Amino acid sequence: MTPDALKALVRTVPDFPRPGILFRDITTLIADGEGLAATVDLLTQRAAALDVEAIAGIEARGFIFGAAVAARLGLGFLPVRKRGKLPVPTIGIDYALEYGTDRLEIDPHLVGQGSRFLLLDDLLATGGTARAAALLLREAGATVDHAQFVIGLPDLDGATMLAKEGITTDCLITFAGH
What we know:
alpha/beta, seven-stranded mixed sheet, 9 strands, AMP binding, UPRTase/APRTase, glycosyltransferase
């Protein structure tokens, strides 16, 4: 299945979460068995070309794709969680959202000093969440210089934000607008 065929499986919902936004709903892609398998195959092929030791996925849809790619490559998977979801001592980072702040946390004991992680999530928009996740992994001792996304929204310039942090981005499909 081609990236264009995958793109056709993504539902666009106008005016969500507020007027003027075209929400790219990936649930229609993951509900399609062939589409989900093809997405994981393509992500895995691209990840295999990188020199990484583990995959970190951002809650929640990054878990779906990140864990599948990690399993296919025989690599470990680290969930980057929202505040208060891990039952062990964590390290965390607060980051800005459009209307307020949020927090990501990880178990730092699962990150080896200098271990090379690929950051994986479903969508790259402004890059704020991915940047925070990468900085958090680096704080724990990881090297993070690549990030993969199923969908990219290049008009929101997230790739530029991540490039400023030394992170190369790769998106399977892109949509114009926001």
